[in-house]
Amino acid sequence: MISSLYTRSLTNSVPLQSLIASACGFSRNLSSVSASGQGAPTASGVPWPWLDPSRPQVLPSYLTQEESRPKPVSLREAVELVKANAAARAARSDPRDRLSGRPRSGTLFDESLELVLHTALNPKKGGEQVVRGSVLLPHGTGKEVRVAVFASGPDAALAKELGADVVGDEALISEIISSEGRAITFDRLIATPEFMKPLARAGKVLGPRGLMPNPKLGTLTSDVARALREMRQGRLDYRVDREGNLHAALGKVSFPTDALLSNIAVYLAALVESRPKALGGQGLEGYLRRVVMKSSMTRPVGVSLESCNEVVSRHRAAAAAAGAAEAGAQGAAPAAAAGKAGAAGGA
Fold first, then answer.
1. Is the pTM of this model over 0.85?
2. How far is the CA of 2 from the CAs of 19, 21, 85, 131, in angstroms?
3. What pLDDT digit, counting tens, does each position of 5-48 carry?
4. Taking the chain, what is the end-to-end CA distance rounded to the nearest angstrom?
5. pLDDT tens for residues 239-260?
6. Residue 180 CB contacts under 8 Å (≥ 6 apart), including other chains
7. Domains of the chain (ranges plus CATH)?
8. Helix 257-273 and helix 75-91, axial crossing angle in degrees, nearest 10
9. Residue-by-residue DSSP string for 233-260
10. Which residues are CB-neighbours of 222 under 8 A, at least 6 positions away?
């Protein structure tokens, strides 16, 4: 209807407002409105709230999805914005709190800082396009996890001594299968190689929950002590989803900004190490298309790819310098020992 009225307006040189008013059955004198558009018209000639005959007609413009997105900021600015948004949400009062007279449990909590990476990966091709791995975050994730260890003999005793929440055996595996997963009371699973075959029987239950042990993730290992220690310290497992995106919780908003940036740098550096060779470019170029940061309950903030590359470059340079210093110290120790031995022999 509007398009036909607009065509008639252009053809007959009639104001579009008049055609709309006549089509809708309004009888009013639009000329009663002042030239400025702010005059008080008569009761019989009230103009439409969104139409002003004295002003030029401007059709609405619509932004594309790319244009409507906010401009990406640096990693540090993004972390500070997310922390500020989470603090503002925590400070905002809820009308339901005032009605009940007491704070509502569960509405306020220490939110996780989440990083969402939109990559150029195509997991449908399989192979190296399915990026997955694990990384030990220097400041942990801030989450308390329950760890189950499936081992026997000395390894089971060691797991109990180190504080494993659950030490499983074949009886627990049978219970998990029969209960269809209701017997699972843990968040992470570590297993020794001897339990790989028994756990395979529970693959339909453990697999969808991401609990099947995997040597690439360090959850299928003979070194139970190391795996359990890394789980407690905050090891992060990551895997690209079906859409080619990576989601990771890299700490809590209560963490200091520098601690969160350190976790992010280690995580991004690990992704660079897992980068498929088929992708063009270097570092994160050609690997990531868009980076978004948010907390559990706040709106996302765009992050510039340039700042991500800078953080990864600084982290890798610092790691290389630390490795060179450690190698130099290890090489100096035997030389010093040999010098002392030579001095003693000369004496």
1. no
2. 10, 12, 42, 52
3. 666 666 666 666 666 666 655 444 444 444 444 444 444 454 55
4. 109
5. 888 888 999 999 999 999 999 9
6. 205
7. 1-35+45-61 (no CATH), 70-94+107-143+234-320 (3.30.190.20), 144-233 (3.40.50.790)
8. 130
9. HTEEEEE--TTSEEEEEEEETTS-HHHH
10. 155, 192, 193
